[in-house]
Amino acid sequence: MCRRQQKAMNTCMKQYATQDEQDSAREEWFATMDKRREEREQKEAKKKIDEVFWREWWAKDPNEKPGQTGKGGP
């Protein structure tokens, strides 16, 4: 979420929400904190895997035919 929109939402909550609504929102935020952390970790892991893939992809020899095992060998 963009910082500006988050600040606008928080300002609106402080101005118009009842204490029960604020407590409910806080409770929901803390309840889903672990889920958000896991999603962030999964996204980082995928990013690292993708980075390795693309490094290998761009390091390929363009003259190599599909099925060749690379340098050397029979």
TrEMBL record:
It comes from the Eukaryota. It is found in: Mitochondrion inner membrane. InterPro entries: Cyt_c_biogenesis_Cmc1-like. Residues 1-26 are annotated as: Disordered. The keyword Iron does not apply. GO terms for cellular component: mitochondrial inner membrane. Signal peptide: none annotated. The keyword Membrane applies. Residues 7-19 have a biased composition (Polar residues). Keywords: Chaperone, Disulfide bond, Membrane, Mitochondrion, Mitochondrion inner membrane. Required for mitochondrial cytochrome c oxidase (COX) assembly and respiration. Belongs to the CMC family. This is COX assembly mitochondrial protein. It comes from Friedmanniomyces endolithicus. The lineage of its organism: Eukaryota, Fungi, Dikarya, Ascomycota, Pezizomycotina.
